[in-house]
């Protein structure tokens, strides 16, 4: 692959007509046209390897051919596409397959709610339900957590730039230290102290909401032990545990749910992004049956049911009929880890730290602005990769799960090269 | 069409696996399979006329063949489907066509924001921006208003059942009387009194948010004069005017924007539902250029860009290249109005009141529970129609705009019959 | 009395050492030294008639000799002065006398709470209790209402300047129109509409809080009929009725409680100001026994019990052993009303409106800035009188109840003269 | 002193007429009549030593004869008692003496605000001003902090029982760990981490509010180093530092301000309780001149000015013309510390911990319920002493500063005896 800096694309339509709020089109300044698997092509035919995967929405790759076939057939035969939350064949198929392939084999008993098609919808519904069921209002979230942009989801999100965007103070949430947030603080010992001290100023929470691996927050991994302790803390005090598996679920770290290895049983689980299978807007909220205390229509929305997503998602669930995808993800995760370790070993002066699990890994660079530079150089060389962390200090390696070894190695090679160049061109 | 009560459908999958929050599948208890134009068919092959239109998301009908063709082609050729807010050919085409067909001919200058794929996302983004730009926090909404289920959107929604679902008190919003809310109150004279009185307890608002016709609230129509007065109130006091055209825009009342006849120029416009063309999740926030003060990424989301929706929406915009759809909608609106008036004239004891404009009309019944009964009977006879209003006291006639006269008259005949039967079977 | 403008007082200590927040010392720029009854003297020996009465805290006049004797005796004999809420002889005497002289004869059953020594403390305690007892959070207050400066009390206060001082948005309160707030609005018909409409956006309130006569808000009088309707609205919906009688209670309008004539029975009554008898900080919250659901110490404070105030208040209650004070107040109120009416008749160009009842009356002037000018001129001529209303558009005639006819007429003559001069010196 | 359990007092007036919220009269179930210095007498003539001192309001003892003389003279001569915030001779004298005796010798430049007569008023005014000046809304408070019962003050108070009493969620405040809150957590390192991490979820605060020694929270002492670090954290980030010296100021720990030894200069200082000199309701807010950005009357109240308190406070300030009181307090503090240490050494099984400084010391008992038992026994033996801490686990030794050695030793002997008895009578 040659560098592609010499060709530029006319972005003026976007600059003229679209709001200033647009963001990724600034980091990846070209116009994309086609995509398949782990590859994207822009209007000039330039090919890009995708280590971004729609921020986690494309675990099965772009335009997955198995799913695509189903979508075209569904459209062709005029099956119902939009139906709010009426019953449809597509929805029934999805519910059954999700039960059969995901929940039943894991002995997980959950009712399925369709809260609207985004992760934020799922989080909003989870918070509402937790507050309704417990009659309490406070929710404990964690530092660096990211749960969405609507007012309820934003209140449990740590990022100050996003929070400030609310334009109003954010309430009913308390941000406690995440695992390893501060080297000298045992975060859960502190949390327990707060919960059990009648003088701490922390009102008894309805729920604790967490990501098991914080993607947007900078690829921070919670240990299994930490997750188990959080669950125990919740159980002992009748606090609900909400796991936001929007980005890190659907196999991103190996198993379908990110928390399977920890062996915990959240009360409410938020899913979106890759649950849509094909990058279609879709979200689920999984609810332990005894907590399913909603009145009909108490939370609603026009796109609760979206049959193309049902069709795509149902087909994508076929990947989970065996453990092959999980095994492959773990295997590729190891490749990435070795590769990143070897890259960082060469550049200790960038103060690098390899982080993550499975196919969500990355490097945090202590050197300010370095991560963004690496990503910009990588893009010029045909690799799409984003930063995360509140100072954009982490590069994120997050390819579609279905990437082959050739693509993976090629992408990693570009990354290696890009770090080298970034260092040279201070 | 014969009555179809004798056949029942097995709804057990939904009853067993889906959350209690499900709602429309309770009102329309069958499993739908196929749909085209203004018709739906269930798994038993029963045909239904659709006077519901996806709660306003299906103005161009189910599975509109022109749009369907474009979607299948797009999928077939592996154009990029999911791309967050990166630039794509599909997005560029949409932006240009929206500019050329909608904004430019109306001499409307607005920047286009993709806030996430739901109406609530658009409302949340509008509220955030209004607060950011003005530095104020209060937003004035109106009685019976409906703007969405996320915490910010819910705070400007009037319905107490939905509000209660929040589980936390809702802040930063004040609900003032809508046009004709109370016969003895000039709602805007009162609003002005509050705004101009330093002792009223109403903090100077960032914005006023309204629907020009409240669909969920019971088909309450604001007069053009009232809308013009609201705009003047805003202008005189530097308050932003947000029009939520999610349900009533995209031609529902005739013109593309519901407020065109009133001649007002909102500062921010929320669009969703039918803007997606094919019932695909999609939303826009239109912002006057000087107010487009977002920082890049200050509001974001995984499904901001959704290329199938761009493709469908772009094709749907072709309907707006001439004024044919507007004229037809007004003509059919008159048919409906005549028909509803004649129906209600026959049943004064149900205390009926015909309401609405264009293809969002309905009958409010004073008799408690009557509207729900009519809809249930209509469903049994092959007509899908929902109620609205906080006591479900209004039946809503809201077919796809592309319905033909045969379908329209057939549906109205079933409605007429259903009212008769409802009266007889107290 | 001659004008006293030629003498000025050195206010530099206050200007140098005291915060900019000071206010009355700006309107009445002299240093006061002595006071008795309805008269004050400054350090230069200038005498002032007091039509201000400590903003309602001095109903029994300055340094009332009967009360003074008791205070000096109490101090001399080393009875306990500060005792938090421990039991003391002084407190027991107060409780018994308040029961015997005030509650029992009126057949009012209330428990007495000492919430801290200010009206705002009483209002805060009333709001807390109403929320606790009902489990609801919203409180309905009224336009132009004034209830205090602490965050809870401020949230039910209408004045935007004071509200803005909070520095945070004020929550859990909704401001509805007061009696005669807007000529075309039947305020209670609108309130009922909001309360009974599930789509109004008004959450079912814990309580309605009101003043029967709004002193700070501009001397706005609620009719007896209006108060009775509010009570009925509350009773029908299980909403608590809180009457803030801090300024207008203790006989200011004739009867001890301002609402006696209306015949209503509030659930909670807030008293402060003149209940202290001698201008000492003191407040009560009266609670219907079944609502007295406080846990011990759930609301507390260092100055809940303040024995000098118990002593002063107990002695002041002797005034209420007969109906003489009530009769005299009504008689003097008529003198004031006639006098104000005759003054205003002479100056229709100032757009005057006589308002009020008993010994809280005033004139609202349509002419901007006129009221403040009148008060400034009156001060120069030996009369202390403040303005009220959110634009300071109302002059307030509010002498101690014990003023004699000579003082009253003298003060009114100065007022008459001051209006005349104010008109002449535009 | 003999035990006094055999005599009981008739508390029925209080039980019948006063609200259930009453508290201290339950712990000290007798009716007090007279008081002088560190002694109280009840109606039966029983004498009590006061180790409670009006919860810190009686540093100069009950009915201090020097102050009493001034009060009687002031009353006798009819000097003005109630004057809102008008200028009076008494107020001028206070302002000058406070400047001369307290501020000037310490080279402290502060404007004096009279925010209303309670500590909560002072805290409310401090929070308002900090928010106004910075334009931010969040305030950082600390675990176990106690700042008052009004809604603003309560939001920065840790005690969950008191917080719950609000009946509404408390906003705009974040409770961080106080010094030594958790043995494994360096509280300020964590706070800094939160403040400097854009992803922590802690919005940049307007102010940090703290007590240097938490009385109500259980006698928790912040080290000078910790206080200096807090000040540095504030200075580096332009956060205001508010010290609530309501209970622990006015010499309670030796110097007039509790933070003098730490050498910090708070931006705003809250004073109440003993600043009133004689147990009269009174409070000050001290404001650095550049922060005195109040508009006139932006915060007001009827009892801002209370001339008896000015008179008493002015006389009490004479104690501060020399350093005698400070020296004596430190000396007596050492006596207490030695005494408590020796008591606790005898009873290791009660898991005792001596805490505090100067004349605010105490013993925390690990054994549940033990502290309350000790206080109850002590009361029966003629010693008034309260518990603190959220589980009432700490006994508080807090006599008037003017106690003599005889009284101090006598009280400590009763305490010693009471611990012994409490242990024996499990």
From TrEMBL, chains A, B, C, D:
Q: EC number(s) per UniProt?
A: 2.6.1.76
* Origin superkingdom: Bacteria
Q: Which family does it belong to?
A: Belongs to the class-III pyridoxal-phosphate-dependent aminotransferase family.
GO MF annotation list? diaminobutyrate-2-oxoglutarate transaminase activity; diaminobutyrate-pyruvate transaminase activity; pyridoxal phosphate binding
Pathway in which the depicted protein is active = Amine and polyamine biosynthesis; ectoine biosynthesis; L-ectoine from L-aspartate 4-semialdehyde: step 1/3
**Name under which the protein is recorded:** Diaminobutyrate--2-oxoglutarate transaminase
Matching entries from Pfam families are given as: Aminotran_3 (PF00202)
User: Could you tell me which NCBIfam families the record lists for this protein?
Assistant: dat, ectoine_ectB, PRK09264.1
């Amino acid at each position: 692959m040659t560098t592609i800096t010499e060709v530029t694309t006319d972005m003026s339509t976007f600059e003229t007509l679209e709001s200033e709020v647009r963001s990724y089109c600034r980091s990846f300044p070209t116009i994309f046209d086609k995509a398949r698997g782990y590859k994207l092509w822009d209007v000039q035919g330039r090919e890009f390897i995708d280590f971004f995967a729609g921020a986690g929405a494309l675990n099965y790759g772009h335009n997955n051919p198995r799913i695509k076939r189903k979508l075209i057939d569904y459209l062709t035969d005029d099956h119902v596409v939009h139906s709010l939350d009426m019953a449809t064949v597509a929805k029934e198929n999805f519910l059954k397959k999700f039960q059969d392939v995901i929940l039943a084999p894991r002995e997980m008993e959950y009712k399925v709610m369709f809260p609207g098609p985004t992760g934020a919808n799922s989080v909003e519904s989870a918070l509402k339900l937790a507050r309704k069921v417990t009659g309490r209002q406070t929710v404990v979230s964690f530092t660096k957590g990211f749960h969405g942009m609507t007012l309820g989801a934003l209140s449990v999100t740590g990022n100050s730039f996003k929070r400030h965007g609310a334009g109003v103070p954010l309430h009913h949430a308390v941000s406690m230290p995440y695992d390893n947030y501060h080297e000298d603080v045992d975060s859960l010992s502190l949390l327990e102290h707060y919960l059990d001290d009648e003088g701490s100023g922390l009102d008894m929470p309805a729920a604790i909401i967490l990501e098991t691996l914080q993607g947007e927050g900078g690829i921070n991994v919670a240990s299994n032990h930490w997750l188990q302790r959080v669950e125990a803390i919740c159980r002992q005090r009748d606090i609900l545990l909400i796991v936001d598996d929007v980005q890190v679920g659907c196999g991103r770290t190996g198993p379908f749910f990110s928390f399977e290895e920890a062996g915990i049983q959240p009360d409410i689980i938020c899913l979106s992004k890759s649950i849509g299978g094909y990058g279609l807007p879709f979200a689920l909220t999984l609810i332990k049956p005894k907590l399913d205390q909603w009145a009909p229509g108490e939370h609603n929305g026009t796109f609760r049911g979206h049959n193309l997503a049902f069709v795509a998602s149902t087909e994508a669930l076929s990947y989970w009929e065996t453990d092959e995808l999980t095994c492959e993800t773990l295997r590729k995760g190891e490749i990435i880890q070795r590769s990143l370790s070897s890259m960082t070993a060469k550049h200790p002066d960038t103060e690098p730290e390899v982080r993550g699990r499975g196919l969500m890994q990355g490097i945090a660079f202590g050197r300010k602005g370095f991560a963004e530079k690496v990503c910009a150089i990588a893009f010029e060389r045909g690799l799409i990769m984003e930063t995360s962390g509140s100072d954009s200090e982490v590069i994120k390696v997050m390819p579609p799960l279905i990437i082959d070894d050739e693509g993976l190695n090629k992408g990693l090679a570009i990354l290696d090269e890009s770090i080298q160049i970034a260092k040279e061109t201070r």
